[in-house]
Amino acid sequence: MNLPGTGILKGLGVTLKHFIVTYTEDFKYIGKKAGVEPRPLRRSNPSNHGIVTVQYPDEHLPVPENFRYIPFLVRDSATGEDRCTSCGICAKVCPPQCIWIVRTEDPVTHRPVPAPKEFYIDTTVCMNCGFCAEFCPFDAIKMDHKYEITSEHNRSQELLFDKDRLTMPDTYHASIHPLDWARELQEKAAEEAKKKAAAEAKAAADARKAAASAASKPASATAGGAKPAPPAAGGAKSPAGQQSAPNVPSKPPAQPPPAAKPPAQQAPPPATSPQDPPKPSAGS
Amino acid sequence: MADTETTQPGDGTGDAIQNDPRVPPELDRNVFITTLDAVYNWGRKRSMWPMLFGLACCAIEMICTAAARFDLARFGWELMRPSPRQADLMIVSGTVTKKMVPQIVRLYNQMPEPRYVVSMGACATGGGPFKEGYNVVSGIDKFIPVDIYIPGCPPRPESLLHGFIKLQEMIDRQSVRTVPWYRPGGSDVIPVPLLGPDIIDVRRASEIAERNKVMAESPALAEGNAQGQA
Amino acid sequence: MADVTTTPPLTPAARPARPERAEKKPVISMATLTPEMVAMQQHFGEPVIQPAPFEGVLITDTSKVPDVALFVRDELHLEMMTNVTCVDYIKEGYLEVVYHAQHITGGAPLCFKARVPRDERAVLPSITPYYPGAEFQEREIYDLYGVRFTNHPDLRRILLWEGFAGHPMRKDWHEAYYEQENKPYDSRWPAGHHKLAEERVPWGDNVQYPPGFDPTAYHGNPDEGLYNTMMSEAPTGGAADIPFSETGIRTDELIVNMGPQHPSTHGVLRMVVKLDGETITDLKLVLGYLHRNHEQIAERNTWLHNIPFTDRLDYLCGMANEMGYVIGVERLMKLQPTERAEYLRVIMAELTRIQSHFWSIGFLLNDLGAFYTPALYFITEREFILDVFDQVTGSRMMNNYMRFGGVARDILPEQLARIRLLVNERLPRAIDELERLLSDNEILRARTIGVGYMSAERNIAYSVTGPLLRASGVHYDIRRADPYSIYNRFNFDIPVLYGGDVFDRYRIRILEMRQSLRILEQALAQIDQTKPGDIQAGRKAYIHRAPAGEVYSRVETPKGELGFFLVSDGGQNAYRYHVRSSSFINLGAVKEMTVGQKVADAVIILGSLDIVLGEVDR
Ligand code: SF4
Ligand code: SF4
Ligand code: SF4
C-alpha cells in the first residue's frame, strides 16, 4: 500500500526531470557536436531528450525528399521544353479531380501535339496525395516542398495554379529530389545505352543482311528506330549507369520493378533479362 | 522593426487614410497617429488568442502547431481559448459541413472585434477533396470573411505558422483610423444560415425564393436542380 | 491478378467503361453455405433462407428478420452484430440491407441479407431490440437510403439533419456538383479548361432546393424531434410541480448541449444531456457535423482514388485505415502483396497504433483537467513517429502509402535505422515515463476507477470493439480473431483487463503499445530477410478492375474494428463502399455508460472512447 500522494510525487518527478533535462541536453552538446549538426536536425533526432522546439521562421526542419505538398511541372533546362506530354494520366489518377489539362493542337492538322496548352491545379481542392507524380510516365510532374503558400483575401485567383505558376526548372527538381534525380539519370543512361546497343545491333544486322543480299533497301529509313530492339542489349549497362549506381541506395523511390537496378553492382556479367523500362511505358 | 512601414506612401493603407473624408488633411500621416498605430498593432499582433476550434484532420496539425515542437506560444499567441468570447482569431481547420456552418457563423458572431479568420487547409479554403460532397460547403468564405487562406491537405505546422506570420504582417498594415470596429455600427453581424432541405444562406433567401418560383413554373429551367423530396 | 492497364489511352474514345459494363452481365456466383447457414435454413425452411449472391444468405420474408436475428444470436451464438449496411441495386430495383454477425471468439462473420423495394414500401423490422449495436447503423441506413425500420426506438436522421431533402446514398440521388457517375471526369482532359464547380450549377454554390421551395416561409427546426424525444412530461404548473428529489432539493430538469464546439468533445460531436442537478438522466448524441460524404464520393472514385481518402477517415491513424481498404480490394482482386510490403505494412500499422494511443491518452488527460502537460509530452513523442512517416511516406498524417499488392515506396536503410532507434530506445522509455507520470497518480485514479463502467455483455451487445471491449475482459482482437496480413507470424499477446471502466481503458492502451513494440521488434528483425525493392506484386497500375463480388474485410485499428464492405460490379470503381467504423459504433454505447454519472464524468467517458470524428461521421 502506497502512501497517499506518492503517485503524484512520482509524476511530479517526471516533470522535474523533463525540466532539468532541457538544460543538460544542451550542455552535452557544448563543445561536442554544436556546429556540426544544425540545431533543428539535432532537436528532431530521436536520441534528443531535451528541448524539441524548432524556431520556425529562423530555422527550418529539413523536409524529407518524399515530402509532398503541391505538385509542380518540370521543365527541362537543357531544351527549355516542358516534360509534360499532356497524356492526361495525372488528370485521371487525381482523386479529387483537381487537374485540368488542355492539349495543344497542331494549328494545321488539328492533331494533338504532345505538350499541354493549359494546365491547372486547383490547390484549394488538391489533397497532396502525390498520385499525379507517382503515375506520370514522363517524370513531368513532381511534388513540391514549398509549404509556405498563403493567400490573402483572394483565393480563387491566387490559389488556382496555372501552367506558368506550376512550371519549375529541372534543376529545382534535382535540388529537392536528389534520389529521384539520380534514378532518372540512371534510367536515362540505361535507355541511351540500350538505344546505342540496339542501333549497333541493328547496324550489325543490317551489315550482315547487306552482305548476304547485295540488294540493300531499307537500312537508313528504319534505323531512326521507334523501338529499341531488346536482344542482348538490355544487359549492357553503360559506364555512366554504373557510376551513378552507388548514389542510388537500394531503392529508387516510386518505381515498380527494381529487379534491374541492384544488378548494377554486379553489372559486368550481363545476365539479367532485359525487362527494363522501369516506369510503365507510355505509348506515344 | 516592421512598424516603420505602416504608413508608407503608396501603400494601400495610406491611400485609404487619404481618402477617408473624416480625417482632416492636416492630420494625415500625423506622427502621433502613426506611432499609435505602431504600438496598437504591435500589441495586437503579438497577443493573439486563437480559438480552440477544430473541425477535422487539419485540427490535429493545428494542435501540433501549438505543441512543443512548433510552439505557437513563441509568437505570443499563448492560449487557445475554447470560448469565442475570449478569442481574437478563428482558425477554421477542416472540412466545413453544411450541418456545422450555422454553428461556425454563430461562433464568429460571438467573437469580439477585432477578429480574424484563418482558413486552414484545402477544405476550409475551397472545399478540398470533399468539395463535391452533398454536405460540404465549398469554402468557409462563402459565409464569413477570411483573412488568410492556407492551402494544403493538411498544411504542415510550419505552413500554419507561415500563415500566422502573414496575418501579423496584415495586422501591421492596419490603422486605428480605418479599422471598421471603431466606426459607428462596427462590422456586420452575419445572419446564421438555416438548415432546410439544403443549407439556406439567409442573405440569399429572397433570391432563392424567386428563382425557385420561376423554376417551378418552367421545368426546363429546373434541369440540374431537380432534386425533389424523395 | 488484377486486370491492369498501363498504357495511357490517347484517344478519348478509349475511356468510358460504364456503358459496356451494363451489357456484360457479371457472373454471379451464389454463396456456398456454411454449417451455420444450413442450420438457419433448417430452422426457418428453405423458402425463407436462400443462398445470396456472393456471400451469405438472403431472407426472403422480410418480416422474419427479427426472428432470424434472435436465432442467430441465441442459437448460433453470434453475439455481436458487427455491421449493418445497405446497398442500392437500382437496376434490379431493390435495396438490400446486409447484416454481418460474428462470434466473439473469432472467425469470419456470418452474413445475411434482406431486400426491400425502393419506393415507400422500403420498410423493415428493426433488429435493435436484440442487437442494440444496430441502433445507430439502422438510423444511418434510414438517413442515407430511406429504409424505415419499424420498432426502432429512435428512428431519426443521424448524419444529416431532419428536413434534408432526399436520401443521398441512393444511386439516383445526385448531389449539386454532380458531374458524372464515375471518375475520371471527362471534363478534365483533353479539353480541360478550368471551371470551378460553382460555375456549373444554377445556384453558384453547393446547394439544391426542391422545386418551388420558398426559404422565406420555411420554419423547420432540425432539433425539434431531438428535444421532443428527450423532454419527458414537462412540468406545466411551474415550480410547484417539480418533485423533490431524495436529498430534499427541488431541481428542474435541464437540457444542456455540449458541443459541437466544446473543447472536450474531440471534434465536432454534440452531446445533448438531460441533467438532474449534476447527474445525467438522459443523453442523446447528435452526429454528422463532420459528415463529408466519404462513402458517396468513394463510389464515384476509382479503386485507386479511394486510398488517400481512407487516410481522412480516422485521421489519426491513416495507415491503419489504408491497410483495411487495400486488404479488402486485394481480396476482391485475388492479389497477394509481396513479403516486404507485408512487413512494411505491419511496421507502419503498429507505429500508427502507438502514436494514436499516445494521442488518445494525452487527450484523455486533457479531459481530466491535466491541461496540456501530459498531452504535450506525448505529442512530442508522436512527432518523432510522424517524422518517420514523413520520411517514408511523404506526409505526416495523410500518408497514402499502401497500394493494391504492395506499398508505394520502399524504405531506405537509414529510415529503418531510425525506426529501430525509436522502437528499441525512445518509445519504450517514453511509455515507461508515461506510466510513472500517470498510472499511480491518485487524482487520476480517483477520477477514473469505476467511472463509465460497462460490462462485457453490454459491450458485446452494443457491438463495441477495440480497447474498450478488451478493457472489459473480452479477448477479442481481429489480429488474432480473424487474422489478416502476416500477424500470425508474430509473437504477441492480446492484453485484457477486467475493470471495464475509464481507468482500464487507459491502462489497456499502454499495454497495447507495449505489445505493438513487441511486434515491431520482430518485424524489424525479419524485414531484413526480404528482398529490398520488392514492394509491389504485379505491375504498378492506375486502373484496376475488381471482378464482380462482395467482400467484408476488417482490420484492428487503434480504435477497434474497422471494416470495409465493398461491392464490385466488375468495374473500375466500387459499386458500394461502406465503412464500418469503430468510433461510430462505439458511440452507441455512450448513453448506457453515462446515464447516472455526473456531467463532469461524461467528458472523460467520451475521452476514454477515443473517438475521431472523421471516422464517426465519415
Ligand atoms: S501524366 Fe505527366 S506527362 Fe501526362 S499529362 Fe500529366 S504531367 Fe503531363
Ligand atoms: S497531389 Fe493528388 S490531389 Fe493533388 S493534383 Fe496530384 S493527384 Fe491531384
Ligand atoms: S484539408 Fe485535408 S487534412 Fe485538412 S480537413 Fe480537409 S481533408 Fe482533412
Commentary on this structure:
The complex is a heterotrimer of chains A (284), B (230) and C (618). Chain A is α+β, with helices and mostly antiparallel strands and 284 residues long. Chain A has helices at residues 6-29, 39-43, 89-93, 131-135, 155-158, 163-166, 170-176, 178-212, 219-223, 239-244; strands spanning 71-75, 99-105, 112-122, 141-143, 151-152, 160-161, 167-169. Among the domains of chain A are: 12-62, no CATH class; 71-185, Alpha-Beta Plaits (2-Layer Sandwich). In chain A, a hairpin with a 6-residue loop joins strand 2 (99-105) and strand 3. In chain A, helix 7 (170-176) packs across helix 8. Chain A is elongated. Residues 216-284 of chain A have low confidence and may be disordered. Chain B has seven helices and five strands; from the N terminus they run αααβαβαβαββα. Chain B has helices spanning 12-19, 31-45, 57-66, 101-110, 121-126, 157-172, 205-217; strands at 89-93, 116-120, 148-150, 194-195, 199-200. Chain C folds into three domains: 28-150, Beta Polymerase, domain 2, CATH 3.30.460; 224-286, no CATH class; 294-617, Cytochrome-c3 Hydrogenase, chain B (Orthogonal Bundle). Chain C is 37% helix and 15% strand. Chain C has a five-stranded mixed β-sheet with strand order 2-3-6-5-4, covered by helices on one side. Chain C is globular. The chains are: A alpha+beta (284), B mainly alpha (230), C alpha+beta (618). Chains in contact: A-B, A-C, B-C. Chains A and C meet through helix 1, helix 3, strand 2, strand 3 and helix 4 of A and helix 8, helix 11, helix 12 and helix 13 of C. Strand 5 (151-152) of chain A pairs antiparallel with strand 3 of chain B. The structure holds iron/sulfur cluster (SF4) (3 copies). The site of one iron/sulfur cluster (SF4) has 12 residues of chain B, from helix 3 and helix 5.
